UniProtKB/TrEMBL annotation:
Pathway this chain belongs to: Quinol/quinone metabolism; menaquinone biosynthesis
Protein name, as recorded: 1,4-dihydroxy-6-naphtoate synthase
Signal peptide: none
Membrane-crossing residue ranges in chain numbering: none
Protein source organism: Poseidonibacter parvus
Pfam families attached to this UniProt entry: VitK2_biosynth
Catalytic residue positions: 147
EC number of the protein: 4.1.99.29
Name of the gene this protein is made from: mqnD
UniProt key word Lyase: yes
Length: 288
């Protein structure tokens, strides 16, 4: 009997796109059935802290807190390249040093960067879908928009700061912005973990190469919150060739993110990303 492995991802367009080659049966693991759960990214961060899922999408900023229980996967990653989350406010307003701001979660990458850049801001957390309206209503002075919200927001609002610019200022300017990825429970046997990671790598690659077929299917099934044009733009940003498998420059970017978090007191230990991957070379050695 095949094992059932829980795979949790966010309901935003890039995660749905990268996973659904598996859901539609185009790609399958060898010795398991994947069952998927879609939830808000901060809810998934909190669930990973509790060890609820076998494989889970996370904000990269969370990873140092779960490194002992979860290995970092090399696939289904989202990075910003000249873009990313946006700090927005009402048009024409001026923010004080201690402005009240809505963030999408305590352990999000945008949250980490924001707290480093704006240490005096008063933070409240809410679902990312509620942030735009909270700023319009005056519940908060500003908010950080993520996911598809960065593409279309009210004309009553304007961008105070691009989080990409914050990242450039903090990191030195030559690295992509690490936003989200996936991790896998360390208690899973190594040969199975390697298969599951390879399955996910293949799923992201197949989705990316068959985007013109898969994207309309997702819209027809009602799985995406945006229209076809917005989806196309969003996938250009966050589900592309650079999402299939982590590259050397992406490892450097992750290490810089973890270094910044450690330097500013958010992480107890300095984490090097490549030390926490699944040792996929094991399969090659075992075959010799």
């Amino acid at each position: 009997m095949l094992k059932t492995i829980s795979v949790a991802h966010s309901p935003d367009a890039d995660d749905i796109f990268m996973y659904y080659a598996i859901k539609f049966g185009w790609v399958r693991p060898k010795d398991a059935n994947f069952t998927n759960i879609a939830d808000d990214i901060e809810t998934l961060n909190q669930a990973t802290l509790k060890g609820e899922y076998d494989i889970c999408a996370i904000s990269f900023a969370l990873y140092p807190f779960v490194k002992d229980d979860y290995a970092l996967l090399k696939t289904a990653v989202s990075f910003g390249e000249g873009y990313g989350p946006k700090l927005i406010k009402k048009k024409g307003t001026r923010l004080k040093k201690n402005f009240k701001v809505a963030l999408s979660g305590e352990f999000t990458t945008n949250g980490l960067l924001f707290k480093i850049a704006y240490p005096e801001a008063r933070i409240t957390y809410m679902n990312f879908l509620e942030i735009e309206q909270a700023v319009i209503d005056g519940t908060v002075d500003a908010g950080v928009l993520i996911h598809e919200s960065i593409l279309n927001f009210s004309e009553q609002l304007e961008v105070e700061k691009e989080l990409w610019d914050v990242w450039v200022e903090l990191s030195g300017g030559d690295l992509p912005l690490p936003l989200g990825g996936m991790c896998i429970r360390r208690s899973i046997p190594l040969h199975s973990a390697i298969d599951y990671e390879n399955t996910l790598i293949k799923a992201v690659d197949v989705a990316n190469k068959n985007r013109k077929v898969l994207a309309p299917m997702l819209i027809d099934e009602g799985l995406i919150r945006v229209d076809a044009k917005t989806l196309d733009t969003y996938l250009d940003l966050y589900a592309n060739d650079n999402s299939v498998e982590l590259s050397d420059i992406q490892y450097k970017a992750l290490d810089k993110l973890f270094e910044l978090g450690h330097k500013h007191g958010f992480y107890e230990n300095l984490v090097k990303s490549q030390e926490f991957l699944i040792p996929s070379e094991y399969e090659e050695l075992r075959a010799k």
